[in-house]
Amino acid sequence: MKRTLNLCLAILAAGIVIAALPALAQQSQGPITPKPRAPAQKAPSGAIRVRVEVVRAPVIVVGPKGEPILDLQQKDFHIIDQGVAQTIDSFDIGGEPLSAVLVFETSSRIAALLPSIQKSAILFTQTVVGPSGDAAMIGYDGSIRRLLPFTVSHENIEKAITHMKGGDSGARLYDALFDAVGLLRNRPAERRRAIIVLGEARDTGSEEKLGEVLREAQLSNIVIYGVGLSPNMAGLRSEPSASGPSPATPPGTFGMPPMPGTAQTPTSQQQYAGNIDLLSLAEWAVQNATAVVKDRPLEVAATATGGTYQSAFRDRTIEDAVDAIGGELNSQYVLSYRPTGSDTPGYHQIKVTVDRPGAKVRTRPGYYLEAK
Predict the structure, then answer these.
(1) Which of 16, 309, 329, 359 is the most buried (most CB within 10 A)?
(2) What is the pTM of this model?
(3) In Å, how far are 63, 280, 287, 344 from 348, measured between CA atoms?
(4) Residue 353 and residue 358: Cα distance in Å, rounded?
């Protein structure tokens, strides 16, 4: 009798478990939020994280005097990807909602400028994020900190900006950018994606290389905007010397390595030290992802992704720079296409033209595809 009773209880328990399975399965349905990766964690070497299925090209078109041209139609644009004409699948001008990551340097070197940045908090919400956008925040010095998850609340964004505090003397810019790319990669595909960086044009101590970050940003259709800060106000306001600094090496010798792919000559070295071809440098950085890029990294990042870079040295110019970024995001054409005839590994150049005499076009220069 006891054995029979135990058998009946076992059968009853099994029936209860089987009956509960549909309910448990129903609870596990829906999107699963992956565990966030630790900030600035290095991805496996050689692993491609994103394949290009749809390329979204942000395009700014201006007239001969720099005035924005806002009346173009889809039929006015032409896109070439690696020499192959593409069919534009979708077309928009400033209408799609924006997901932005606001990246702020909080190092001790620029701590004195934080009040100036904090006074511009309302500009980030009103002109950059806008009524339909959302934003997250990252702060960086010698470490990377996620200050705010994605939110549509303007109040929470402004509060996070005004409560930023200065940190140590580090400046892990590339790691902060890499973390921002990771946050944006998971945003809905139909949203525009942008990173706005306020910091010095320097990096110290990052594990990531700039070229690797830019590859990921290009593959994820992310535009980077940079606002350059510097604590050395007195030096930046002084007039530059007409004769330039005294050379540190004997005549006919050079103290810096040559620009990639060029021989060392006085002309090339002058260009390398001053008038850098940012577009060529941006393409070189993406193609040589593990190489070190020390000069003008924020400008290179903006050029490589179709954004802009502005230097800000006084309170008002910080506000002007943020306002200009917001204005561009609201007047930006976004063209989407599925690459055809150009799926080979390597760097893919993008060229956009418009049927408007005298118009100038700015967009992302391309993207890099690794071999499978």
Answers:
(1) 329
(2) 0.76
(3) 27, 13, 10, 9
(4) 11
- Which H/E stretch holds residue 98? strand 98-105
Instruction: Please tell me the distance from the alpha carbon of residue 279 to that of residue 302, in angstroms, as a whole number.
Output: 10
Tokens representing 23? 């309910």
Rounded to the nearest 10 degrees, how much is the dihedral formed by the CA atoms of 148, 149, 154, 159? -20
Q: What is the per-residue pLDDT across 75-121, written as a single tens digit (0 to 9) for each?
A: 999 999 999 999 999 999 977 899 999 999 999 999 999 999 999 99
Residues 268/262, Cβ–Cβ less than 8 Å: yes
What the block records as the tokens of 348 is 């893919």
- Give CA–CA dist 121/15, Å, rounded: 59
Question: Residue 212 is inside which H or E element, if any?
Answer: helix 210-219
Query: Model confidence over 113-150: pLDDT tens digits?
Result: 999 999 999 999 999 999 999 999 999 999 999 999 99
Helices (H), 80-133: 114-118, 121-123
Q: Where are the domains of the chain?
A: 55-92+335-369, 97-230+276-330
Radius of gyration, CA atoms only, the chain:
25
Q: Which of 365, 364, 366, 360 is nearest to 72 (CA)?
A: 360
178 and 213 Cβ atoms separated by less than 8 Å? yes
Contact present, 342 and 84 (Cβ < 8 Å): yes
Strand order, beta sheet including 366-369: 84-86, 77-81, 346-354, 366-369
Distance CA 334, CA 195 (A): 16
